[in-house]
Design brief:
single chain, eight-stranded antiparallel sheet, 23 strands, alpha+beta, 12% strand
């Protein structure tokens, strides 16, 4: 094997990295077990105590220099479907931004164009709203420029005047919408931290104005919805000086110290009094508050050790702040009865938005904001007309802020009264900046300077603009998974993975003997690599991801089967074992490479266009393709060559008594049956699509048609049709499906009631209707375990991207096969066979439905269809590769002469691989749970018909389009088409 040293070095490096990152998972699980042990009393787990323990170590080192937070970021996490939680997709509404930029214009043409654009977006979700608005405006008011509506003082800084073209106006609106999405993303990221959950996830959905958020373990979905959809709140407040707030904090520290001492002595502490501490107090906290420079850091630890709880927490040098790891403890103190009794109602200690790093330690500053008696701020975000990052006269980054005339007058009054003091700019109760007022600011134009980087000024400008233009977010997709369902999913994933792995390992050992054991070792190594890479990239493992993992196991075996079957062929030709190994690996390489490329193509397309569970499946599949190639082609070869190197008497075998005589001397006339296959496929497809038409169309899931779905548990077995009859009046005749979901006492209710309304009010209305419909079954204890909502616009996008994914997959495979095999007939036959496979899988759903077995077509179904295409293409590529090999070795033979021998010679590999994958998918169908039932069913049908199409559809089509033409051309040229040597002796009957 060439470059053996490089391959060994690469394997060692990858193995070390995977072990390193998986060890973080081990450490994290250890910390979580300690938290459970800490919070368990008398056999009962106190969830609050468990979370308190995790909060206390969140920023504390738990593995060398790594904090628990850093460990959690590097561990192999679990998706929401495995641990419970809430998934939300929000969309920033551009409608309100357009209205605000127009100055809330009352122009009839403008408002009519807005209405038409909103209607058009329901059916054209892929087109930007601003484009639809521009088209509608030009249709409603032809020849009337947009500048007549948008040329105002607010938009002057955006470069819009009365002479601006429509394109320039739309470009300015687009820019503002993009900035609004960025602002919303940053605001939501801050709000997500308020939920106190471990490993929250927030990310922008590429190419859209949507933001995806995942919150594991949340137990109050209504609170989440309100916080995520609320308008950003920007306020301006005066700030207490440190010497003004210090006496209150000293008194609070004394009270907490007295309480702490009393708790140790077993006595009650004295009640807090209303008097403040003396200014000359020399306690530890007072000493710390008096030190305002960084020099205080030298003895902060010593002084804090002498004081109370506050003194021990206020460790930020020169400022009123705490170490990041202590923020949870500080919050608990500020919420305590002592703090409420001592601190005045006009004092609010608010956290800074960003931490500050001092001497490699991260601190978060507390800003003492002076609230008014009625809680109304002197100024709010509506008064800001613009804010932008700029470079000042001294060459330093700064923020320029402009205000409305009314706001400018209030701002002049506020700054004039606070010269030499700080003014806090507070966004959603976090201080984004607290600059010191240098002089009274009139006219509204304000410069904010400081030790800023350009990124800091850009962030601050965005934060200040958060209250300027409304950018409301609405939930367009939502999924809630209860913790009990998450635990069930973990068990299902674990059982299906182990069962699939064990079945394949037993099969390989039973069929290939000691070589099969080598394949098993490389398979386990492959599993280790996949999990390590997932952990390295911070990818959460989900139930669809586990499905991808199981399929990767099966595809890894495919490479080993290809290699071992090749080696067996070479051994049958009389080669020695080392020569057969060398030739078997080299000859199988091209087929393995081609099949991995096509699978990777599908993984990339799914990853790019898919969302949520489909992306998780695609990531696992893509990583598995790479690790399988390394383990099956290189690692297994290293082990096998080591086993036979320098040994004449070795024990390595590639067969057993069970497999020794299987698939020997096959001579099926496979292409001769092609017309029967054509007819059979046509009949099945027509029956399937005919039944689909009779049934009222495909049984689309919520992903494709929009709506809401709920999983409801009862305490006894329920009849789905009876429950549906009770629910139908509550949902006012809207689309409804009720079916058993896994266990007999669990139902899944799917409804299209108010599907077009994505508001929170509509969510509540549908939920109320569901509960009303279930009132008859109150004695059966109905409990909603999970819920899903997909808005109409999201559903349209999913349908569009699903069709696009299928089209791009077929196009990509056509181009790649054409590149690898040089003839368009090969590409055309492969694509026709794959399209045939997709149609058969789709047709199987209405046929199964006719027999009472109902499955929905959703995103996971699309992933299953594309995966089927990948495995079917693998079979087809292997056959193509063998045909190409035969034609190269026998140039005088025609395609028609080599097609049956090629199909027969690869028959063993085709059947073995398909059988192993089919066994794994059946295991997934049985143990994988109801969530993956549709996926597993699609894969079972797809594997059967994919294997069938590789043999009876793809290659025969080449024969009908290229092989017959080649034979006719050779006959016309007078060439021999029998494959016999022209100089061979002739044998005929003698004359009498």
């Amino acid at each position: 094997m060439r470059n053996k040293g490089l391959i060994i070095a690469l394997t060692v490096v990858v193995t070390a990295l995977c072990a390193y990152f998986l060890f973080f998972t081990y450490v994290s699980r250890g910390v979580q077990q300690k938290a459970v042990a800490y919070a368990t009393r008398n056999g009962k787990l106190d969830e609050t105590a468990r979370q308190h323990y995790l909060d206390s170590v969140w920023r504390a080192p738990v593995f060398g220099p790594f904090t628990y937070r850093e460990v959690r970021q590097s561990e192999l996490g679990l998706g929401l479907d495995l641990k419970g939680g809430m998934h939300v997709t929000l969309e920033v509404s551009p409608v309100e931004i357009v209205k605000a930029m127009s100055g809330n214009s009352k122009d009839p043409a403008f408002n009519k164009a807005l209405e038409q654009a909103q209607e058009a977006q329901k059916t054209n979700s892929g087109t930007p709203f601003t484009t639809l608005f521009s088209q509608a405006y030009q249709a409603v008011a032809p020849g009337k420029p947009l500048a007549t509506t948008f040329a105002n003082t607010t938009n002057k800084s955006r470069g819009i005047d009365i002479n601006s073209s429509n394109d320039k106006v739309i470009a300015a609106i687009d820019k503002e919408v993009d900035e609004a999405i960025d602002r919303s993303f940053n605001i939501l990221r801050t709000r997500v931290d308020k939920f106190g959950v471990n490993q929250p996830s927030i990310q922008r959905v590429k190419g859209t104005g949507r933001i995806q958020i995942e919150l594991p373990g949340v137990d109050n979905p209504d609170r989440v919805r309100k916080l995520l959809q609320g308008q950003a709140k920007l306020e301006f407040w005066e700030v207490w000086n440190q010497n003004e707030v210090g006496p209150y904090l000293v008194q609070l520290d004394q009270q907490l110290s007295a309480k702490e001492a009393a708790a140790k002595a077993g006595t009650k502490p004295a009640n807090a009094t209303a008097t403040t501490a003396a200014a000359g107090d020399t306690t530890s906290l007072a000493a710390q508050l008096a030190k305002k420079t960084k020099d205080a850091a030298a003895d902060s630890a010593a002084t804090s050790a002498k004081g109370g709880q506050l003194a021990r927490l206020f460790t930020m040098p020169g400022r009123l702040g705490v170490n990041l790891r202590d923020t949870a403890r500080m919050n608990a103190i500020l919420r305590s009865p002592e703090a409420k009794a001592i601190l005045p109602p006009t004092l609010a200690l608010l956290w800074n938005l960003k931490p500050t790093t001092i001497d490699k330690q991260e601190y978060l500053e507390l800003v003492p904001v002076r609230k008014t008696r009625n809680g109304v701020p002197p100024l709010s975000g509506e008064v800001i007309s613009d804010a932008r990052s700029d470079i000042g006269q001294n060459g330093q980054p700064e923020v320029l802020m402009n205000m409305t005339p009314a706001g400018s007058r209030k701002w002049a009054k506020m700054t004039g009264a606070n010269i030499g003091r700080q003014v806090a700019m507070v966004l959603d109760d976090y201080v984004c900046s607290a600059p010191v007022v240098q002089s009274e600011i009139t006219g509204g134009g304000t410069s904010i300077t400081g030790s800023f980087a350009i990124e800091d000024t850009q962030d601050l400008a965005n934060q200040l603009k958060a209250g300027k233009l409304p950018a409301p977010t609405r939930i367009v997709e939502e999924a809630i998974v209860g913790p009990s369902l998450g635990k069930e999913a973990i068990n299902q994933g674990l059982y299906s993975s182990l069962a699939g792995l064990i079945i394949i390992m037993i099969f390989m050992a039973a069929y290939y003997g000691r070589a099969g054991l080598v394949a098993d070792v490389s398979l386990l190594f492959n599993m280790f690599l996949i999990l390590g890479v997932l952990a390295q990239f911070g990818t959460a493992l989900t139930l669809p991801g586990i499905a991808g993992l199981i399929l990767v196991i099966a595809s890894a075996i495919d490479a080993n089967v290809l290699i071992f079957e090749r080696i067996r062929e070479e051994l049958a030709h009389g080669l020695t074992v080392p020569d057969a190994i060398n030739k078997g690996y080299s000859r199988a390489f091209s087929a393995i490479f081609d099949s991995n490329v096509t699978t990777m193509l599908i993984a990339v397309i799914l990853g790019f266009f898919g969302t949520g569970p489909v992306q998780s499946f695609a990531v696992t599949l893509g990583i598995g393709v790479l690790t399988s190639f390394l383990s099956a082609v290189f690692v297994s070869r290293l082990i096998i060559e080591w086993m036979v190197k320098g040994k004449d008497d070795h024990s390595l075998t590639f067969d057993t008594f069970l497999s020794r005589n299987l698939f020997k001397n096959l001579n099926f006339d496979i292409v001769g049956k092609r017309k029967i296959a054509y007819a059979f496929s046509t009949i099945v497809i027509l029956i399937g699509f005919g039944l689909m038409a009779v049934q009222g169309g495909p049984n689309l899931g919520v992903d494709f048609q929009g709506g809401r779905a709920y999983v409801v548990d009862f305490n006894k077995t329920m009849i789905a049709s009876n429950v549906a009859d009770q629910l139908r009046p509550a949902f006012k005749g809207a689309g409804l499906e009720v079916k058993q979901f896994g266990s007999p006492n669990r139902l899944r209710v799917t409804t299209g009631y108010l599907a077009q309304d994505e508001s929170t009010a509509a969510d509540a209305t549908v939920l109320t209707a569901l509960n009303q419909g279930l009132q008859k079954y109150s004695a059966d204890a109905p409990e909603i375990k999970s819920s899903t909502k997909v808005g109409a616009t999201i559903a349209d996008d999913i349908k569009r991207t699903s069709v696009l994914s299928l089209g791009l997959t077929l196009l990509g495979i056509f181009i790649y096969v054409l590149f690898r095999f040089d003839k368009w007939q090969f590409s055309m036959a492969a694509v026709v066979a794959l399209f045939h496979d997709a149609l058969l899988v789709i047709a199987a759903f209405p046929i199964a439905r006719a027999f009472g077995v109902t499955y929905e077509m959703d995103q996971i179904f699309v992933a299953a269809v594309l995966t089927v295409l990948g495995f079917s293409m693998n079979d087809t590529v292997v056959i193509y590769d063998r045909i190409r090999e035969y034609l190269r070795e026998n140039p005088k033979l025609t395609f028609a002469q080599v097609v049956n021998p090629a199909l027969n010679s690869t028959f063993s590999r085709t059947i073995i691989t398909s059988s192993t994958i089919l066994m794994v998918v059946i295991v997934l169908y049985i143990f994988g749970g109801e969530t993956l039932r549709s996926f597993s069913f699609s894969m079972i049908i797809g594997m059967i018909f994919g294997t069938y199409s590789s043999l009876f559809i793809a290659t025969p089509i080449i024969l009908d389009t290229y092989g017959k033409k080649e034979e006719r051309e050779r006959l016309a040229a007078g060439q021999d088409t029998t494959g016999l040597p022209t100089d061979a002796p002739k044998l005929s009957s003698a004359s009498a």
